[in-house]
């Protein structure tokens, strides 16, 4: 995978994959994402409506049995629908990635049979024995890692995905079918005659194992990044209702100018949405730290400490994001920190939700695009409120390599009167 490569091998692979994430290529996937967004809205609508006819009360009056049905109404006559955000957005994100990366319609939100979503969502699930063995080797026997195959991912899921990708590739090659998705971009890179002629001697064209590996990476990185960002954005909007209202007003006013269509141009105008997502990523980055390796000796300023070439450096993302020197009152959710003026006044490297430099997250633009479109569909149709089941402030889970709430984030969605 790209994240495991170093030096010239990483540079070559990165240059091969980067064209897959240009604005032009991403725009070809917009309609696929919108289909998933519409399915998400339909799912919420169906559950909000069905939730109104499930409460019954039995009472007695003068020896007569009277059945009384109580229907709980909100302002528009519908009962809010409560659900756990990481699970909900995890399924939505898997739908997006399944169709954009693999050409698979997974229907995760409505599939109760344990299909694609059920299997793929366990990619980071390891047995206690396997997890303990990994940590023992890494902490106490690091030299052994060179000879023992290690993985923090569930290999059964990896093999399952590999088969899905190989079958999709075989089907497209035999039928000539093409789709505007990530897998097709990789296949085109593999099969493009110009690429093969140009790279014949230096073997720069993508191989099938490389295509499989990068597709799996696309799912893993995209799943956690997008679902985490969506979860905590809704969490903050539920707590900060005035910001939710302001953001909804921006979304609706811009969509009105584009005849209700969520076009690329409309999304570019939603600057407050960008600010909200930026502040969410500051307070709730997907990962707590990054690792980089020194490529040359470096003396830390104002000290005698030298980091030697080859030294691994752990970068505390959370520490930087909550440093009051750069972010005054850091525990306050304030999207104004990410206005153009505020961003220009800060050092670039104190904001690292996707890393930075040449090894930043290659899929960050896709993650932001799918997240933004998901939020637009949600806020134009639903209001979001905090559930009593959610702990505020939440506690980080100790059993995840990614940042998530220990007891989940439970929120309620209520249908807006958009007539």
From TrEMBL:
Q: Pfam families of this UniProt entry?
A: p450
- InterPro entries membership: Cyt_P450 (IPR001128), Cyt_P450_CS (IPR017972), Cyt_P450_E_grp-IV (IPR002403), Cyt_P450_sf (IPR036396), Insect_CytP450_Detox (IPR050476)
Can the keyword Cell division be found in this entry's annotation? no
Membrane topology per record: Peripheral membrane protein
Family from the record: Belongs to the cytochrome P450 family.
Give a short account of what the protein does: May be involved in the metabolism of insect hormones and in the breakdown of synthetic insecticides.
Give the PANTHER family listed for this entry: CYP9F3-RELATED, CYTOCHROME P450
Name of the protein in its database record? Cytochrome P450
């Amino acid at each position: 995978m790209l994240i495991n490569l170093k030096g010239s091998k990483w540079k070559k692979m990165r240059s091969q994959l980067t064209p897959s994430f240009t604005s032009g290529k991403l725009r070809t996937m917009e309609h696929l994402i919108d289909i998933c967004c519409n399915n998400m809205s339909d799912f919420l609508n169906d559950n909000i409506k069905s939730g109104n006819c499930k409460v019954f009360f039995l009472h007695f009056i003068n020896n007569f049995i009277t059945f009384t049905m109580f229907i709980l109404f909100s302002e528009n006559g519908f009962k809010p629908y409560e659900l756990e955000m990481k699970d909900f957005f995890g399924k939505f994100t898997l739908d997006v990635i399944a169709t954009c990366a693999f050409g698979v319609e997974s229907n995760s939100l409505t599939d109760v049979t344990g299909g694609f979503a059920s299997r793929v969502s366990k990619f980071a699930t390891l047995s206690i024995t396997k997890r303990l063995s990994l940590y023992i080797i890494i902490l106490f026997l690091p030299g052994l890692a060179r000879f023992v195959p290690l993985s923090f991912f569930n290999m059964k899921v990896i093999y399952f995905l590999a088969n899905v990708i190989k079958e999709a590739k075989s089907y497209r090659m035999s039928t000539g079918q093409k789709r505007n998705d990530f897998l097709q971009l990789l296949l085109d890179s593999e099969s493009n005659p110009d690429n093969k002629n140009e790279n014949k001697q230096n073997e720069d064209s993508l191989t099938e194992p490389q295509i499989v590996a990068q597709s799996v990476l696309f799912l893993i990185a995209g799943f956690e990044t997008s679902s985490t960002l969506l979860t905590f954005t809704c969490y903050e909007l539920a707590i900060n209702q005035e910001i939710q209202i302001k953001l909804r007003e921006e979304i609706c006013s811009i969509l009105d100018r584009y005849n209700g269509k969520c076009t690329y141009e409309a999304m570019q105008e939603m600057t407050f949405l960008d600010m909200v997502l930026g502040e969410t990523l500051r307070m709730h980055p997907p990962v707590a730290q990054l690792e980089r390796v020194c490529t040359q000796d470096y003396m830390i300023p104002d000290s005698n400490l030298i980091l030697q070439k080859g030294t691994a450096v752990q970068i505390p993302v959370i520490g930087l994001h909550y440093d009051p020197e750069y972010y005054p009152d850091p525990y306050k959710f304030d999207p104004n920190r990410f206005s153009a003026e505020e961003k220009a006044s800060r050092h670039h490297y104190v904001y690292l939700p996707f890393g930075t430099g040449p090894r930043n997250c290659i899929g960050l633009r896709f993650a932001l695009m799918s997240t933004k479109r998901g939020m637009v569909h949600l806020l134009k149709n639903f209001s979001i409120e905090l559930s009593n089941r959610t702990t505020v402030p939440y506690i980080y889970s100790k059993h995840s390599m990614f940042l998530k709430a220990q007891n989940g984030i439970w929120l309620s969605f209520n249908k807006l009167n958009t007539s």
